[in-house]
Structure formats: C-alpha cells, structure tokens
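Changelog excerpt: complex records now keep ligands as SMILES alongside chain sequences, and the structure block spans every component. Example after the change:
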Amino acid sequence: MITKTSLQKTLGTWLTLGVTLLWLLGVIASGVVARHEMNEVFDSALEETAQRILPLAVTDILNRENDTGNQRALALKEHDEYLTYLVRDASGKLFLQSHGADPGVFGAKPRQGFSETPTHRIYGEGAISNTLYIEVAEPIAHRREAVLETSLALLIPLIVLIPISLIGVWWVIKRSLRQVVLLQQSIEARGGGDLSPVAVNRLPEEFEPIMVSVNRLLERLRRALEAERSFTANSAHELRTPLATALAKLQRLKTETDDARVKTRAGEIEESLRTLSRLSEKLLELAKAEGGSALSETCNNLVPILQMIANDYERRAPGRLKLELPDDSVMSLLDPDAFAILARNLIENALRHGAASRPVNISLTGEGSLRVINAGEIVPPDKLVVLRNRFVRSDTQTLGSGIGLAIVEAIASGAGTSLNLRSPASGQSDGFEAEVNVVVDHTDRRA
Ligand SMILES: Nc1ncnc2c1ncn2[C@@H]1O[C@H](COP(=O)(O)OP(=O)(O)O)[C@@H](O)[C@H]1O
Ligand SMILES: [Mg+2]
C-alpha cells in the first residue's frame, strides 16, 4: 500500500525543522563569536585591574613600618569578589592579598602575563624591577556563565518560533490549496450526465495543467459518448424503414403463396424480423435515455400514466397484473415519456421472466416508490449486479435483447435517482423485485 502524504504536514514539519536547525546553527555561531569577544574584554579588564592595583599595593607595602608579613586588604563592605589578587615577591612570599583571595588558586611562584589553571584565569605583572609581583585571578566559571546566558537568551525566541512556523505554514498551505480542493470537488461532481469543463478561478500555477488536462479529457469523453449515442440512434432510426418494408413484403408473400412450406418459412423470417425490429426500437429508446435529461420543466402526476400502461398490459395478459396505486396524486419532475418507458420495461420483464402462472404486483406509493414484483426463480447475486448492463441476460430461454434494464438504469440515473434490483423479492422467498423512486425534486435536479 502506498502511504499517503499530506502536503500540509510534510511542508509544515520540514520547514519548521529547517528554520529551527538554522536558528540553532545561528545561536552556536553567535555563541562562539560572543565567547571570543568576551574573553578579549575580560582579559583586558583583568590586565587593567592588575596595573591599577599594583602601584597602590606597592605604596601600601613600602609604607609599612614594621614587616608584619602578609596582610589582608581590608574590605570596605562585605561583598563577593569576582577578581581576587595576591602581591608576592619572586620567591613567592606573600605581602598582600585581597580579602577573598585563596592563595591555593595561584601558583607557588608568581608568573608574568596571562596563565590559566583549571578554575581560574590569572594575570601577573611585576613592579620595582620585578621584586614585587601582583597576580589577579578571575574564575573561569564566571566567563562560561556569561557566554551561556547570552546563548540561552538567543534560544528563547525558538519557543515562539516553532509554533508560529508550524501554524504559519499550515495556514498558508491551507489558503493556497483552497482552490485546488474546489477543483477536486468540481471534478468529483462530474458524471455521465455532466461533462461540462471544470473551471476554477485563481488556481495555483502548478495545478493549472491538471485542470487543462481534465478538461481536455472531459471534452474527448463527451465527444465519444455523443458519437456513440448518435450512432446508435441513427442506425436504429435508419433500420426502421427497411425493416417495415421487408415485413410488409413478407406478409404479401404469405398471402400470395399457397405453398405451406414457403408459408412457414416466411412466418419464421417474419418472427426474426420482428425481433430485429424490437431490438432497434429498444436501441433507440436507450440512445434517447442516455442522451437527454429524463426531467421535464413541470411536475406531472404519474398515477394516471401508470394506470394507463397497466391497462395496456392487462389486455395482453388478462388477470396477471395486480396494481396498487395511492389515493393521492404523485407529482414528479420525471419526464412522463421517460416514466412510461421505464414502467413498460419493468412490467414487460416481470411478465416475460416471472413465473407464468403467478401474478405480477405493481405498486406506486404516495412517496413515489415504484415497485414491480414477480414470482419466479431466484437470480444469483453475482448475476443480479450485472443485469443492468447492456446485453446482459440471466436466462436465455426467454425472448429479449438484454437492454431493458439498461434503459431503466439510464432513465433513473438521468433523473438523479437509482434502480434497485432484489432477488428474492423483499418479504418473499423467491421472485424478483425492481424498485425505482420516481419522485425527483428540484434539489436532485442535474443538468
Ligand atoms: N422481473 C424479472 N424477473 C426475473 N428476471 C429478470 C426480471 N427482469 C429482468 N430479469 C433478468 O435480467 C435480464 C436482463 O433484463 P433486460 O435488460 O430487460 O433484458 P431482456 O428482458 O431483454 O432479457 C433478463 O434477461 C432476465 O434474465
Ligand atoms: Mg427486458
């Protein structure tokens, strides 16, 4: 199975991921630059501090009256020290230390210039011909914290950026695909009855060719269907006259000859010609049903039409039809001629294919449900589904062309309703039932 991907989901995910990644790279790059710049500033501050304190410390030490060894510089106020310092001589003897200084942090002997221990960055400077040295230490953690905080501040916008990017992409794609959805719906709505070109305004450029191709295809389909229908209609029409002439000539031949054998032969040929003639009539009906709309401009009462058709068949098969009509009229937009053709085909089938000794029930309800039910053998489900196709017949014992149900189907779908076939008939153990809802209203109306 091919997994379906949503454009919205794919683009949303990848664009957001891309933006996030680029942002992270940006944060890392600015972190590196910031660290470099900060180190420079901090180093310069460290150097400056050492050079500023040194003269003061030297004066302080030289002014001591007695040499009392190391002294702690007095803190004016209790505070944390970022920078601590020691003043020592070259051998490492301590003269002065800032109040928070930890001599363990510094080396055993003073060193000049910048140096680094695992925890501190130290700057040393000598004075009085390098007899006294000052060393100022700054914790490295302090610098790290500064870089980390700067980078973290750059990361915070990501929290907002990710949802904004996701929602933004989702919204933009939804907006741009709106016309594409319209196109899809408009293609979906097309069917055998409506092959007009699809037209959607402001379609994204990438989808324009799809619309053009679909329209080209629809046009070809429409032409092919039209050609097929007009061919069927024309040939059926053209066959009428020669068939009628041939039949008339045969009948004359039958009356003119005394030869019994010729008479029976002529009778057989006449039967074949009648079958041919019926087939061409059916083909014409089919072409009409498939070509035009089965709807009329005004509503018509279908009850008297069905009554008339039933009376017609009652004469041909006395006592077999059981007709059930509603008391009220049944108004429908279905074309009266189309309805008559539909009903005739269904009744004809029931009489022809149903059990000969059993009645045929024809019923029309007030809601417009037309049912024609007959007794007889059950038609297997696999046959039942294909019966409405042209030239498909279930039992070949009876006469017929196999396009009666195709005509009914064409009229029903042209009117926006459908033909339901059931075997066994509903509520019975055998038989066949054909049902069509013949009431179609304006909302069902199709072009
Ligand atoms: N009322 C019915 N009872 C039983 N079988 C039916 C009925 N109507 C149709 N059929 C089956 O469906 C087939 C197709 O019907 P149709 O298209 O009208 O063609 P035809 O009647 O010319 O054979 C028939 O040959 C028959 O086998
Ligand atoms: Mg038939």
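Residues 345, 348-349, 400, 404 surround magnesium ion (ligand 2) (CB under 6 Å). The longest helix spans residues 7-62.
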